[in-house]
Design a protein that fits this description.
Elements: H1 13-22, H2 70-73, H3 80-106, H4 118-144, H5 150-157, H6 170-175, H7 179-202, H8 206-226, H9 229-238, H10 240-249, H11 261-264, H12 266-304, H13 314-350
């Protein structure tokens, strides 16, 4: 359940400079229209506008994009070389943040002998500077771009009375391109890349390697061939808010964290545990089944349709459909583990 995801949107002085160099230029000030960069130009993608290309159609009435290989062009936006270049950049950023965290925690090594152990400091740095920052970043992006999913939100908030999630509009929800979703998917993929390296380095186990492969493949498939941008903001964004808290709580785990840390900071573990339970119930128990119902319905309709944009994407849609079904089962299992663990912790507190 330690499934995390990726990137770092906070613009430092260095990144602000890079943003200025990489922002789309406005060459048509007389008309007031922004002219975005061509897809064939490779560049760092550090802003929302970076994910808008001037050849990304609002509609594909002439099937210009649909006639191309979706694994090459996706649904729109930047080309693959720009995506891979930016993924590499963010992986480096995460590595630098991890090293900075190690240096900072080292300054507090005299607080407790546990922090004096180098391995413990490295574990804390990984979970905080890489895992937590990555998860909270994609969670933030998903939440701040929730307007993309306004129909889903309106339908849920009205308890189904608004009828905003019309069944015949499934194609828009499955195949429409959204720059915010493409950005989030890229960041998710970048984190999975860094997390794969960390998993192998720290010998977390084969189950985590398999998880990162599937998670990374899901994110890449969302970009190329491209689909489900509407739902990506929840699955790889908002739902990861609970995972971000879990990343911090993982520091107190005897196997994957720092053994004995709960004895040094017992109240911190208690607060994080409570926050995680609340966030898990909201994101994974309440919201997840609701979103998954609509996702499954739209996905099956898209697979069985004769829509032009479904060509070349049906195989990926089947994969992501079954992956979502499997993850939904895991949510139920994990909820049971939370209940059992919660009872054990309460028993310890009472004694």
């Amino acid at each position: 359940m330690f499934s995390f995801i990726s990137s770092f949107p906070v613009e430092t002085s260095l990144s602000k400079l890079i943003v200025v160099m990489c922002k789309p230029t406005n060459n048509n000030t007389s008309t007031g229209k922004s002219q975005y960069l061509k897809r064939d130009s490779s560049r760092l993608l550090l802003t929302h506008d970076s994910f808008i290309a001037d050849d990304t159609p609002d509609k594909d009435d002439e099937n210009k994009r649909s006639s191309q290989n979706p694994f090459r062009v996706g649904l729109g936006g930047p080309n693959r070389s720009s995506i891979l270049l930016t993924v590499s950049f963010y992986v480096i950023v995460l590595a630098v943040l991890e090293q900075m965290a190690r240096a900072i925690i080292l300054q507090f090594a005299d607080v407790d002998p546990i922090l004096g152990v180098e391995r413990n400091r490295h574990i804390l740095s990984r979970h905080i500077a890489v895992d937590f920052i990555s998860c909270i970043t994609v969670g933030y992006l998903g939440f701040t771009n929730r307007h993309v999913c306004r129909d889903l939100i309106r339908q849920g908030s009205s308890f189904g009375r608004s009828n905003s999630m019309k069944e015949d509009e499934y194609e828009n929800r499955i195949f429409d391109y959204h720059p915010a979703s493409q950005r989030l998917l890229m960041m998710f993929f970048a984190y999975q890349t860094k997390n794969m390296f960390d998993t192998i380095y720290w010998n977390d186990g084969p189950e985590f390697v398999i998880h990162h492969i599937f998670a990374g493949a899901a994110a890449w498939g969302g970009m190329f061939p491209g689909c489900c941008h509407f739902y990506a903001l929840f699955y790889m964004g908002v739902s990861e808010i609970s995972t971000a808290i879990l990343c911090l709580l993982a520091n107190f785990d005897d196997q994957y964290g720092v053994a004995g840390l709960d004895q040094v900071f017992p109240k911190t573990k208690l607060v994080l545990g409570a926050l995680f339970v609340v966030s898990f119930i909201i994101c994974r128990v309440i919201m997840w089944p609701y979103v998954t119902y609509h996702f499954g319905r739209d996905t099956l309709k898209a697979i069985r349709s004769d829509a032009a944009r479904a060509e070349g994407r049906r195989g990926y849609l089947w994969v992501i459909f079954y992956c979502c079904a499997g993850l939904s089962v895991i949510q139920v299992v994990f909820l049971g583990q939370i209940i059992i663990t919660g009872k054990e912790e309460l028993a310890k507190m009472m004694n």
